[in-house]
Every structure is written in structure tokens, then in C-alpha cells.
Amino acid sequence: MTSSDSLPRTVVPAGITDPVESARAELKAALAAIEIKGNVPRRLEKASQRGIARARTFADRNPAGAVAAVVGVAAVTGGLVWAIARAIAR
């Protein structure tokens, strides 16, 4: 394993003296950064996994608070559905 293997894909390794190799490394890093930023489904999956982990940690530490949060979210959701159904019915 070389030192460049431990760098993130979006980093240009230091010490490149050849201009062609430097340009290739910069292009490779830029394309990797674009791929990471542009891959919305993967970013959403990672964000949801982090949210699930945080919710589980919160529920383990504070079960009563977790129940209250679930009841609150259900009440708000039910209120929104009721308001939308009432607006459509009018």
C-alpha cells in the first residue's frame, strides 16, 4: 500500500513533478468529486442510514422521549392529512 492509496479519491497527491501526470491526477480527483456530489441516491441512502442510527441511539437512551416523538409526528401527519382532505372536499 503506497501513501497515495491512503488518500481520499478527491485529493491530488503531492510531489507530482510531471505536468501531464499532475493534470491527470487533478482530472481524476475532479471527476471523483463530481461523482460523489452527483450521486444523489447514494447520498440519500447514507443520510437515511445516519438518521436511523441517531434515532435508534435516541430511543435506547430515552425511550419515553422516543415514544413522545413518534406520537407527535403521527399527530402532525394526521393533522396535515385531515387539513388536505378537508381542503379538497370544499
Write the layout of secondary structure elements.
Blueprint lengths: L18 H20 L1 H22 L1 H27 L1
Give a short overview.
77% of the residues lie in helices and 0% in strands. The protein has 90 residues and is mostly helical.
Question: What's the β-strand tally?
Answer: 0
List SSEs in N-to-C order.
Answer: HHH
Termini separation (Å)?
68 Å
Number of domains: 2
Structural class: mainly alpha
* Largest sheet entry: none
- Poorly predicted runs: none
Key structural traits:
3 helices; 2 domains; elongated; 90 residues; single chain; membrane; mainly alpha
Protein model, in words:
Helix 2 packs across helix 3. The protein is mainly α and about 90 residues long. The mean pLDDT is about 90. The protein starts with 18 loop residues before the first helix and ends with a helix. The chain folds into 2 domains: about 35 residues, no CATH class; about 50 residues. It is elongated. It contains 3 helices and no strands.
